Amino acid sequence: MRTSLLILMLGMGICPAVSAAIYQCQGPNGQVIFSDSACSKHAKEVEVHPVTTGGRLDTGTDVEVWQPAHHASRKTSTNGCDLGYIQSTQLRTWRARRQVKAGMSAQQLNYVLGDPDHKEGQWWVYERRGKETGRYRVRGGCLVSWR
User: Fold this and answer.
1) Is residue 27 part of a domain?
2) Contact at 8 Å (CB) between 46 and 28?
3) 129-147 as b/e, with b when 16 or more CB fall inside 10 Å?
4) E-strand spans in 6-114?
5) Quick check: is 54 in a domain?
6) pLDDT of 5-31, one tens digit each?
């Protein structure tokens, strides 16, 4: 055991230190070539720094990240009604069910129920076969109540 260890230590001591060099040469057509041996007498040795693992690679850079404005400064609705914007999928669902919600805009109500048969002041009146099917109070362009 000791002899094999001694032989190994001597063998390691005799071996020259291995250093890999990278050379940059210029080919016959002007193309840059990298090689582990000098390609010509004008070859330049390229210095390579070891790669460190972990940490940040972009040290020393100041990056400004966009931050949105505070959401409280935005208006809650574009048309002034309580429900504001309603997604088209939800509007189509309500249209199929003929369902309304307080706070809808007059345009949304018109899309869901269609044009009223007649209007009495703030009330939009819908009829079917001569009978009233619903009254909807629209005040300030928004649905307030119905019966």
Assistant:
1) yes
2) no
3) eeeeebebebeeebbeebe
4) 22-26, 32-35, 44-46
5) no
6) 778 776 666 655 556 788 888 888 888
Lookup: tokens for 43 = 């070859």
**Residues found in the chain:** 147
Whether 45 and 93 map to the same domain: the answer is no
Q: Which residue has the higher pLDDT, 65 or 103?
A: 103
Q: Dump pLDDT digits (tens) for 37-85.
A: 888 787 888 888 777 676 666 666 666 777 777 665 555 545 588 888 9
- CB contact at 8 A, 82 and 102: yes
Distance CA 105, CA 95 (A): 14
Tokens representing 97 are 């069910």
Same domain, yes or no: 45 and 92? no
H helical segments located in 57-105 = 88-97
Domain of residue 43 covers 21-49
